[in-house]
């Protein structure tokens, strides 16, 4: 008896030539683009690249830009 297909990690990854989503936050968009080719990067580089992206996102969350939300209010 075989188990039903639970999906694979490959199913969640964008295909070649697909850009990551744009967030409208330049630093986050740059960090996401830096991960775009992670699957072809040497495994030894993964930690540093993921840690850098995490650092950028964490920094953005700690110091959000409120000027965009102010423009949408009112």
Describe the structure.
This protein has 74 residues and is an all-alpha fold. The chain has a domain at 23-65. It has helices spanning 26-33, 43-62, 67-72.
Radius of gyration, rounded? 17 Å
Shape field: flat
Poorly predicted sequence stretches spanning 5 or more consecutive residues: 67-74
Average pLDDT = 76
Structural class: mainly alpha
User: Percent helix among the residues?
Assistant: 40-55%
Beta fraction of the residues?
A: under 5%
Largest sheet: none
Number-wise, the strands total: 0
Taking the alpha carbons of the first and last residues, their distance comes to 60 Å
**What's the SSE pattern?**
HHH
- Count the DSSP helices: 3
Q: What oligomerization state is this entry in?
A: single chain
Structure characteristics:
74 residues; mainly alpha; 3 helices; disordered C terminus
What is this structure, in a nutshell?
With about 70 residues, the protein is mostly helical. It has three helices and no strands. It is flat and about 35 Å long.
Task: Write the topology of this structure.
Elements (H helix, E strand, L loop, with lengths): L25 H8 L9 H20 L4 H6 L2
Helix pairs in contact: 1-2
